Amino acid sequence: MSRVFWMGSVQHMQMSEGVEWALHSCLNLAWAESGTAVTATKLAAFYGLPAAYLNKQLQALARAGIVASTSGPRGGFRLAKALKDITLMDVVVAIEGPDAAFRCQQILRSGPDADPTVDYRTACVVSQAMSRADLAWRRELAAQTLADIRATVESRSPDTPELTRNRLAAK
Amino acid sequence: MSRVFWMGSVQHMQMSEGVEWALHSCLNLAWAESGTAVTATKLAAFYGLPAAYLNKQLQALARAGIVASTSGPRGGFRLAKALKDITLMDVVVAIEGPDAAFRCQQILRSGPDADPTVDYRTACVVSQAMSRADLAWRRELAAQTLADIRATVESRSPDTPELTRNRLAAK
DNA sequence: GCCTTGCTACTCGGATACTTTCTGTCCGAGTCAATGTGG
DNA sequence: CCACATTGACTCGGACAGAAAGTATCCGAGTAGCAAGGC
């Protein structure tokens, strides 16, 4: 009796959803921009996101030099580079930080035949194998720019640029 | 005044350190095994890990069919497959769960021109791009088996099998 | 002497606390623009 | 009419709570072996 059903794994190792917000916001900035800055509030209203929290993510993009921020009336955010110079990797690093998903804790340090002079982050074979996968991931992210994304979106939905511009221009 | 120094990004999107523990423990099981099971306590003592928590990770490996568990005296864990049939991907999925790192929240659902009939996890261009990177990561993890890891370790440190076996055999 | 039976010690398994990270909110510093005033 | 100081509202920026996940621990269910007792 009382059979136990395994409900499936819980959600592990997920990146912040701020990455998704940041990517879409950058695209919207590219479509909206005609020399004017867009406030975090407007960008958040686009998807019903909490404005203050999106603002936090945009700050991270600003620190990374992806967007530029202006305070005061008529202030807001605008792209600091061309879309073709912004890779997915740039955005992910800006939001999630530069560290690899797999963190080698160097547990071999505590093992029976440990050598204190060795850095197991580079020497440990397990760590090397995991790093290989991380590098493949990063390579793929770095190979795609936001310009590529925009081009694909516009080819599928040609109305998107105008719709977005209008929506952001509206008070 | 009171200049603020940015301390660098905090550590985001890190996978559980249980992955590292699980990988090393599987290798140790392969070296120790001579038909006998090894307890979680012994495996934990190898690196000074909390035994009960390592046990938790080993349970996850057991659910995934990577190791088999036996209760009672002379019980413990032993490999359920050959090392060549265990990929890094298998271990990561067992510990971290099957979900991708990037979770498309389908924020386009809340966008201005949303189509409720569309599943944006597959339709959203941003999601597709992120998935491409995830797939590259998974492909790399699936391409490496624990047998590969063992072979590399043994070629670099030929003493490891015997050292490990002796250490695990010791009371 | 051998079989049966009960017991004890041992191990996994999942339920339970504690810590860190992520998510969300708030208020202050700075800024630009409009407005009113004086020349 | 034009220049300038003042005011005011608006926006980002970082500091401050709440929620969720990761980490660590504990105790119970089950099992295998051992020991004692009976045949």
UniProtKB/TrEMBL annotation, chains A, B:
GO CC term (a single one): cytosol
Origin: domain of life: Bacteria
One Pfam match: Rrf2
GO terms assigned for molecular function: DNA-binding transcription factor activity
Name of the protein described by the UniProt record: Putative HTH-type transcriptional regulator
Naturally occurring in which organism (per UniProt): Embleya hyalina
